Amino acid sequence: MKMDGRRTSTNVEDRRGKGAAVAAGGIGLGGLLIYLLVTFMGGDASAVMEQMQQPQSGTTTEYVPTAQEQEFELFASQVLASTEDVWAAEFAKYKAQYRAPKMVLFKGSVQSGCGNATSATGPFYCSADEKLYLDLDFFNEMQQSMGIKGDFACAYVIAHEVGHHIQHLLGTLDDAHQQMARMDEVSKNKMSVRIELQADYYAGVWGHHEQKMFGSLEDGDLQEAINAAQKIGDDYLQRQAGYRDVKSDLFTHGTSQQRMRWLKRGLQSGDISQGDTFSIPESQL
């Protein structure tokens, strides 16, 4: 992905070194696999995650990023700037003004408008403060733990979280959350899948217009994002946890095929109006 010379976003908030220290190494994607394993074995996964995610007491020191982290930070800021340009233009088509989110960089743990979180949570968006949260170590984990390679795969992660912000601005995210508050656990999970698949679609819409506006995509970039979507599908992650028979009732983000399908649709159409994942039958997801 060609980003040399591209502008950086002014909506980046760096909190690295400002939070409490956490248990060394965090849990990251490996922790997710542990969570799945405990759940499938009938254990109390919430208790395990709570223990693993607890911030540990410690002193804060001035944070000095590594050279690689500086590269990741620059890239993430450029991608965020791109989402600002693309979505401002898309909202203008509907005579609406786009309100850009902030991106918070953190290390280990962070306090968001949605509560405390650790790196184990992975990148996430909080509609309460309209911020997306990212520990740059996640990009290393993608490469080393999941075999997800390429800069456009990293860009897809950011664009997906911005996709949740688009849902929030359009009212679909808040409406879905209100419905989930009245649902049983299985129904909540099914609604969550629809939320996540639409965010994948919006990430694809961004990629479509990023290419039209800047011509930044190179050979292999689209495949990088599709490969990333495939490797973070719920069914793929369950198999990585050692189970051949997937448990669809536990899906919260969608299968690999679903995530790839909606990302591709967004990349091909570039049309925000074609991303309705809520009113179609589950079989068509």
Description:
This protein is of the alpha/beta class and 285 residues long. It has one domain (12-284). It is built from ten helices and six strands; from the N terminus they run βαααβββββααααααα. It has helices spanning 28-40, 45-53, 67-93, 137-145, 151-170, 172-180, 185-214, 221-231, 234-240, 256-269; strands at residues 12-14, 102-105, 109-112, 115-118, 124-126, 131-134. The strands form two sheets. It has a four-stranded mixed β-sheet, with helices on one face. A hairpin with a 4-residue loop joins strand 5 (124-126) and strand 6. Helix 3 crosses helix 5, helix 3 (67-93) crosses helix 7 and helix 7 runs parallel beside helix 10. The longest helix is centred in the last third of the chain and has 30 residues, at 185-214. The chain is globular, with a radius of gyration of 18 Å. Mean pLDDT is 86; it is low at 20-59.
Distance between the termini: 29 Å
Q: List the helices and strands in order.
A: EHHHEEEEEHHHHHHH
Q: Give start-end ranges of low-pLDDT stretches.
A: 20-59
Number of domains: 1
Our Rg estimate from Cα atoms comes to 18 Å
- Sheet-strand content, in percent, reads 5-15%
Q: Please identify the structural class as seen in this structure.
A: alpha/beta
How many strand units?
6
Strand order of the largest sheet: 1-2-6-5
* Net shape: globular
Mean pLDDT comes to 86
Q: Helical proportion?
A: 40-55%
- What about the largest sheet? 4 strands, mixed
Number of helices: 10
